[in-house]
TrEMBL record:
Name of this chain's protein: Asparagine--tRNA ligase
Xref: Gene3D superfamilies: Bira Bifunctional Protein, Domain 2, Nucleic acid-binding proteins
NCBIfam families linked to this entry: asnS, PRK03932.1
GO CC field: cytoplasm
Complex formation: Homodimer.
Gene symbol of the encoding locus: asnS
Subcellular location: Cytoplasm
Origin species: Chryseobacterium glaciei
Amino acid sequence: MKKQTIKEILQDYKKVLHHDITVYGWVRTFRANRFIALNDGSTINNLQIVVDFENFDEEIISKISTASSLKIVGEVVESQGAGQAVEIVAKKIVILGDNFTEERDKTILQPKKHSLETLRDQAHLRFRTNLFGAVFRVRHAVSFAVHSFFNKNQFFYINTPVITGADAEGAGEMFGVTNFDLNNIPRDEQGDIDFAQDFFGKKTNLTVSGQLEGETAAMGLGRIYTFGPTFRAENSNTTRHLAEFWMVEPEVAFNNLEDNIDLAEDFLKYVIQYVLDNCKDDLDFLDKRFAEEQKSKPEKDRAKEGLIEKLENVIAKRFKRVSYTEAIEILMNSKENKKGKFQYPVENWGTDLQSEHERFLVEKHFECPVVLFDYPKEIKAFYMKLNDDNKTVAAMDVLFPGIGEIIGGSEREARLDVLKQKMAEMHVDEHELWWYLDTRKFGSVPHAGFGLGLERLVLFVTGMTNIRDVIPFPRTPKNAEF
């Protein structure tokens, strides 16, 4: 008989009522030497095990403690207490893994409240807490929904390289990849590092984006998406940045900017609806936690809606579509800007918007998700389509409450001559990207795409406030533990 998870047992308990079953899990609590709260990670809900200690060896009972792992055989019966429909009367208990007494106080496993910083220091154990069990089950649901959405819409999943010679963003904040002995790096006649002798025969890096390679696939397959790890060597210790994170990047042939915005809105609403439909217990827990967290904030900083209400409102409301030019006028004329409340004042057209500006537009001015489009060409990447005004590009950013930018994308520059001109202006080496230019030589078409940082979406859906708490093992400056 296949092993059943606790989630399956609690969902279909009528099938096993008054039958003997075998369950496995870890002890969350053991009350009065009689009631074990057992959890196997499949759900936030525990299964209560009733132990008649007169039927068991005292030595076994004494070894059961928080975090012990058990195999239990017993009868499923209606629960006599509140809080659960059924419980198991234990007939056999096997201790699979002890919780060594001398180590207990050194870990987060003792049942008390721990700070998120403490939990980060023991990221290998935080999966066992209610909070992080919920977060990572939701992260799974988000990831599954990403694949489901694109599969339903006839996209093809493409794996783009992690090691690349191209810098998609042109920002240069990339981790280098080398096989050199760092104590004996070969140099050429000019004294520069001789990458011709390295493993790949050229300078290579960890990718910041799969977009450029994704575009080449879209030119043959029509609709593609990538979903993989990306890396930024940005020395930033904020609650919104990671050095290693996961990106979702669709690319669609024959799509223009408006099509791209429609796709982004449909995609986000689909994923959020999937989580609401499939993660009810975890979202209920996270919603209560979110509400408690809001109480500790000054009233002016509190969220206007609960977590679940916020998610439902994102689905219900059409995203507000606003040009960059209109957004700048709103920001320049806002009380916050005129009274100097922005950390970065908005003084003129061409200002690169900061998170505080994005959140003002979403949370205070429009009170719904916002899509900004048609940005100044000087503050956007070389591959974005130049508009007819010769001042702006067909870029778009989706802004969410509490997050700011959650998606960034554009219609791509499909005209070879214009693309080459923009690359020259932005000092992007044509020779390095010869293959990218080829896509504009052989049957170029209008096409568009965007990038979604998975962790930012999980941050939004779970109500967490630090991006390090929605990825299993965060990679940040001076931190590569585990």
